[in-house]
Amino acid sequence: MNTGDLGNIMQVEVPEDFGRRMSFGTIQVKDLMIFVVVFVAFVAVALILPNVWLQLFVIFFGLILGIVFAFKKVDNLDFYNYLYLKIKAKDKKPQISMLKIYGDDIIFNGSEYFRIIEVMNGVAFEFMSDAGKIAILRIYEQLLNACDFPLQIVVKTRKINPEVFYTLIKEDSELAEGYKKLIYELTKDLYVQIYYVVVPVRVWELGGITDEQAQVRRAREMLDIRTKIVQDYLQMLGVGGKVVKGYSKIYDVIKRCAW
152 is in which domain, residue-wise? Predict the structure, then answer.
């Protein structure tokens, strides 16, 4: 969703002479040294093993691993550097604290002010008549045509945990266990979908206003209009929608959708 940089993007610049300095062809002296170190380490381990076949396996494995670590390149990076950056990037967490919240409902990510509308219900489209489907599609078309601004719809699908329903059964009996098994069979393959609509106002749309308070006031005026348009059409669709308010609620929504 367009809510700012929720994760850090790692960019690696490779110099023009990468892979040429102190090299034999496309193999650098450093690569040869890495291969020798890795291979010798595995040979040393193999020599202390009592079984000949096990020794040969360890030496062969060390040979393959040494070649991969020393000579394999991924995106012009040495393999070990690539693994390091991959692990480091995986450990990065969404930096949600960079977002600013004004008046309990307007979020600012540095380039956009926006509101998040949580859709309250879904539409059982597949069970509707042909006339009903056409009516829904026309209203949805009208919603899109009424928006002269970017609009993003986020759908988050979550698997239902059957154990949530077990708390409704207070008894501890064979019949109760039977009910639990029945609940599990009925809900194990069920999913629930949560819908959010993101309504933005970009900074450049504010007419060159640089003062922070004036920016927020103008952004609120524009968001009030845009939010009203979206909510009116959501009501016409029969699903409704309310603005997500409060720091903790906004934080939970953004964290939930930052996949």
Answer: 99-257
Do 62 and 124 lie in one domain? The reply is: no
Report the amino acid identity of residue 149.
F
Say if residue 122 is in the same domain as residue 219: yes
The label of the residue with tokens 């640089």 reads 210
89: confidence class by pLDDT, cuts 50, 70, 90: low
pTM, full prediction: 0.55
DSSP 205: G
The one-letter amino acid at 40: V
Task: Name the 3-class secondary structure at 94.
Answer: coil
Which regions of the chain does DSSP assign to beta strands (E)? Answer: 23-24, 27-28, 73-74, 77-78, 100-102, 106-108, 112-119, 152-159, 191-202, 241-243
Provide mean pLDDT across the span 151-178. 76
Q: Can you tell me whether residue 95 is helix, strand or coil?
A: coil
CB-side exposure of 37: number of CA atoms within 13 Å?
A: 8
Q: Strand runs (DSSP E) across 104-179, as ranges?
A: 106-108, 112-119, 152-159
CA distances from 171 to 43, 161, 167, 177, 178 (A): 64, 20, 10, 9, 11
Provide the residue type at 28 as one letter.
Q
For residue 4, what is the DSSP state?
A: S
